[in-house]
Design brief:
Blueprint (H helix, E strand, L loop, with lengths): L4 H68 L6 H14 L3 E7 L5 E4 L11 H12 L5 E7 L2 E12 L5 E10 L1 H53 L3 E6 L4 E5 L10 H4 L4 H4 L2 H17 L1 E11 L2 E11 L9 E8 L1 H19 L3 E5 L5 E4 L1 H7 L3 H4 L14 H14 L1 E9 L5 E12 L5 E10 L1 H15 L9 H18 L2 E9 L2 H8 L1 H18 L5 E6 L2 E9 L2 H16 L2 E2 L5 E2 L3 E8 L6 H18 L4 E3 L2 H22 L3 E10 L4 E13 L3 E3 L1 H11 L1 H22 L6 E5 L2 H6 L2 H12 L6 E6 H5 L2 H14 L2 E7 L6 H6 L4 E4 L1 H4 L6 H16 L3 E4 L5 H9 L4 E2 L10 H10 L17
Parallel strand pairs: 21-22, 24-26, 26-27, 27-28, 28-29, 29-30, 30-31
Antiparallel strand pairs: 1-2, 1-5, 3-4, 4-5, 6-7, 6-10, 8-9, 9-10, 11-12, 11-15, 13-14, 14-15, 16-18, 16-21, 17-18, 19-20, 23-24, 23-31, 24-25
């Protein structure tokens, strides 16, 4: 039975009206009492002030008259007595601030303050005294502020002497401060009394109101609690749909604020579809008394909300119009649940995963179409049966026991199973089972989701193959080699057999890549892989480690000679010509390193290191043959690895140093420059020469970091020397081929010159002939950009490489450096003397300067000087020195700063 909403509305209005009257009554009585008391206070205060002022005036006038009469009896000859009298009166009356007798000319005859005697009055007081003298029967009162204190001054005339011939004015200054304090205290007392009476009155009224209004308030409280317990929106509408009352605890559920809704119609406040539904509900209630179940949708700030309407007709108003109580209930969640159910049903029917629903006894209740397609069963055929019909027999009873245990403990289980289709085919399934329970934890259903993972398994197999095989050649990769090697070693240990690991490196593969491109290089690698695979046995493993490096793992061999035979065979096979897809025919060849178990190692790592060391030694001795591993090679390899590790640490910990070897102008015997040479100050070994660590740095790529550091330190030091006032010096820095081909050399040089401020024309970069010949177009571009920066270019070790006139003409070179190997045997060997003389002459023909390296004797220097060599460096002048010692050498033998002719000049071309 629904409550009468009209009664609720009436009670609510009456309760609100009572509470309003209660408050207004209390404040009305309180305000009336306050107004009366304030009026009485004001009137009493003004009356009190007037009485006090009159009394004060009377007293002050009386005092002045008494003083006047007393003073009138004192003649001017008794002026001294008058002054004493005024001082005594002032001392006896605290409220008197001053007393003074004034003659008709405005001079003070006697004053209560001795310092004021015989002074002239101020203009205001003189004006008052003149008025009193004119009207001897009157007195004058003046109010003013003296030293921050309110003063009332009374002025009276007097006559003195034996014949009253002496005339003057007496002035009395009285303080009004005590009067004001008394008035303020009186006002405060009256105000406190008024407030106390007001509080008592209001309290009495409230207690009376609380006593007589308790029943109504109790009813209002009960009604308010009832209304707050109802979460719905409550409206009162007339027959036109106009809002008369709005009651809502959740104002965010209203289409507009309460103030905006009151007086408006639903057609004005709601969207057209919702307004039409409300009006239809009102018409239905007008005819039948009530209406239920109609639904509207409103777009509110929080989203779209659905409401269900319940309308009841009230009694007809005095004017004959009908009114309605409308209850609007939020059913958004219910609508969403219905939508979710529809969506779930759609997902169930259209899902690509097979879904199976059973009861608590695991009897099949529902199966979606995807499950039927996956298993081959129709839903009607399996309804009422259990999922055991899918078991393939590939899982043990313990597997199903673990499944049931997980469902009991956790309410779910997921894993891979092998199911049997209706036609007997076994398929891999990812199975997810969940338990559905009610509110008290009782099991209602089991839901199983079946996902076919056949394609995933096939993809996993492909990925596993890719993870263990080289994508280019299809051979085993490093991971597969590791697995096969471990297996082979385990078997060899048990059977006391020999295992051989062959490491193969193609001899001229880089030439093919550079000449024909990487596509042809890849085709060549695939053909090499096919030849290797055809040559070895099925039990052997051919792997590609990367680039042009291959390995062959030989198992079950009886003697080391078998490995040598296989290595020789592979070298022969790979030495035959290869036909590339572009029709070109190439010959590459191969070099092989061999390591044996157990002679050279008992682990995969040891065998790989041994084969690599053997391969390295084989390359040093010449290409196209094989070599076994030995202990000597092992020690050498370990030393190289240890040196690499320490070198990386040295770069990180700033253990490198730059020494400078003087470069001398032969004609003037002056030091004009220096070559920067890197040294390694090792904490363990002391100073390590570059010959031991530079080759390792080249192989590992550390040379780029080292080269940049040397260049930066050299430019910094050169700038320090320049700032210290040393003569201009050209500083030469060696550049690695790796820096030219793979690094950003030009950008690095430009950045360092900018950072240090070292002049570009004082920096000389030394490069070897081989570095210029690798990729001549690229090198030409790099050298041209360096020349644009203003940097000088020198060719180091000239005569030991290509010694081509073509690149000397093509490249922007400034200096040729004659290699030390030619200078060493001067003048002992005539061939070296002729070669050196030829290099000097050729360089001068090309307008290049010549620098000779390694000059250690005076005879060598005399020869170079006789043949016009420009500069030299070597132990004859000095070895490479630390910066401090080099500076000391320069300062010991200075040269003129303006002597620029001795410096190596750059070729303008």
């Amino acid at each position: 039975m629904r409550p009468d909403r009209s009664v609720v509305s009436t009670l609510e209005k009456e309760t609100c009206a009572f509470a309003d009257v209660d408050r207004r009554l209390a404040f009305t009585f309180g305000g009336l009492i306050l107004a009366l008391l304030v009026a009485a206070l004001l009137a009493g205060g003004w009356y009190l002030r007037g009485v006090m002022e009159r009394e004060e005036n009377r007293l002050s006038t009386l005092l002045a008259e008494v003083l006047s009469n007393a003073v009138s009896r004192v003649s001017f000859s008794g002026k001294y007595h008058a002054r004493l009298m005024l001082e005594e009166i002032k001392a006896a009356q605290p409220s008197i601030r001053y007393l003074r007798l004034v003659d008709p000319h405005g001079r003070v005859l006697a004053h209560s303050d001795v310092a004021q005697n015989d002074l002239q009055l101020d203009p205001d007081s003189r004006h008052i005294a003149d008025q009193v003298l004119k009207d001897a029967e009157a007195h004058r009162v003046r109010h003013f502020i003296l030293a921050g204190e309110p003063i009332r001054e009374v002025s009276l005339s007097y006559r003195g002497g034996y014949d009253n011939a002496v005339q003057g004015v007496i002035q009395v200054g009285l303080s009004e401060q005590d009067l004001q304090h008394a008035l303020i205290g009186g006002f405060q007392f009256i105000a406190a009394l008024v407030l106390a009476l007001l509080a008592v009155g209001i309290l009495a009224i409230r207690r009376l109101s609380a006593h007589f209004g308790h029943p109504v308030r109790q009813l209002a409280s009960d009604l308010a609690a009832t209304l707050h317990a109802v979460p719905d929106l409550l409206f009162e509408l007339d027959q036109d749909g106009r809002y008369l009352q709005v009651l809502a605890h959740h104002k965010e559920m209203l289409a507009a604020s309460r103030e905006q809704l009151l007086g408006r119609t639903v057609a004005e406040a709601l969207p057209a579809p919702a307004a039409a539904t409300v009006m239809a509900a009102l018409r239905e209630a007008a005819e039948g008394g009530e209406s239920h179940g109609r639904q509207i949708m409103l777009a509110l700030p929080g989203g779209n909300f659905w409401f269900e309407l319940s309308v009841a007709r009230k009694s007809t108003a005095k004017d004959g119009s009908m009114r309605f109580i409308v209850l609007s209930r939020d059913i958004t969640e219910r609508m969403r649940s219905q939508t979710q159910l529809l969506l779930a049903a759609s997902v169930f029917d259209n899902s690509r995963e097979g879904i199976l629903i059973t009861d608590p006894e695991q009897n099949i209740l529902r199966a979606n179409p995807a499950f039927c397609r996956l298993t081959g069963y129709d839903e009607a055929d399996i309804r009422g049966k259990t999922p055991k019909i899918l078991q393939s027999g590939h899982h043990s009873p313990d597997f199903y026991l673990g499944l049931r245990t997980s469902l009991a403990r956790h309410g779910q289980w997921q894993g891979e199973v092998l199911d049997r289709r209706r036609d007997g085919e076994i398929i891999p399934i990812l199975l997810s089972i969940s338990v559905v329970k009610d509110a008290i934890g009782k099991i209602l259903n089991y839901v199983a989701v079946h996902t076919d993972i056949s394609q995933i398994k096939q993809s996993e197999a492909r990925l596993e193959h890719q993870a263990r095989h080289d994508p280019l050649t299809g051979l085993s990769n490093r991971l597969m080699l590791h697995l096969r090697t471990e297996h082979a070693l385990d078997h060899a240990r048990r059977e006391n057999k020999i295992v051989a690991l062959l490491m193969i490196d193609l001899d001229r593969f880089k030439d093919v890549n550079d000449s024909f491109g990487h596509l042809m290089g890849d085709a060549l690698l695939r053909e090499v892989a096919e030849r290797l695979a055809r040559r070895v046995r099925n039990a052997d493993t051919v792997s590609r480690l990367g680039g042009d490096e291959f390995t062959v793992l030989l198992e079950h061999i009886e003697s080391p000679d078998e490995a040598a035979h296989v290595a020789q065979d592979l070298i022969s096979v790979l030495s035959e010509p290869f036909c590339l897809p572009n029709g070109s025919e190439v010959v590459v060849g191969a070099t092989v390193g061999i390591a044996l178990y157990p002679a050279h190692g008992d682990s995969e790592e040891a065998l790989l290191q041994g084969a690599d060391a053997a391969l390295y030694q084989a390359k040093l001795e010449g290409r196209g043959h094989y070599r076994y591993f030995s202990d000597v090679l092992t020690l050498a390899a370990r030393e190289r690895i240890a040196m690499e590790t320490r070198l990386r640490r040295a770069v990180a910990q700033n253990e490198l140093r730059v020494h400078f070897q003087p470069q001398v102008d032969i004609a003037s015997d002056e030091i004009v420059g220096a070559e920067a040479l890197v040294r390694w100050q090792s904490p363990e070994e002391g100073l390590i020469p570059p010959g031991r660590f530079i080759p390792i740095a080249e192989q590992t790529g550390l040379i780029e970091a080292i080269g940049r550091w040397v260049l930066l330190e050299t430019c910094r030091q050169g700038q320090r020397w320049h700032a210290a006032g040393l003569p201009p010096l050209t500083l030469a820095v060696n550049v690695s081929p790796r820096q030219i081909m793979h690094g950003d050399l030009v950008e690095t040089v430009a950045a360092i010159l900018k950072e240090t401020g070292f002049p570009a024309q004082r920096l000389e970069l030394e490069m070897t002939e081989s570095a210029l010949m690798d990729d001549q177009d690229h090198v030409l571009d790099v050298l041209g950009r360096l020349r644009t920066l203003g940097v000088r270019i020198a060719i180091d070790d000239f005569g030991t490489g290509y010694s081509s006139l073509a690149y000397l003409k093509r490249f922007p070179i400034d200096v040729l450096k004659v290699d030390k190997s030619f200078v060493d045997d001067i003048p002992r060997l005539s061939d070296d003397m002729e070669i050196t003389a030829t290099i000097i002459a050729m360089a001068h023909t090309l307008r290049l300067k010549v620098m000779a390296e390694g000059v250690e004797t005076q005879a060598q220097l005399d020869f170079l000087k006789a043949h016009g060599c420009d500069f030299y460096q070597g132990y004859l002048k000095s070895q490479a020195l630390p910066p401090e010692e080099f500076m000391a050498l320069i300062m010991h033998k200075p040269r003129p700063l303006a002597d620029e002719a001795a410096l190596p000049a750059a070729d303008p071309a």
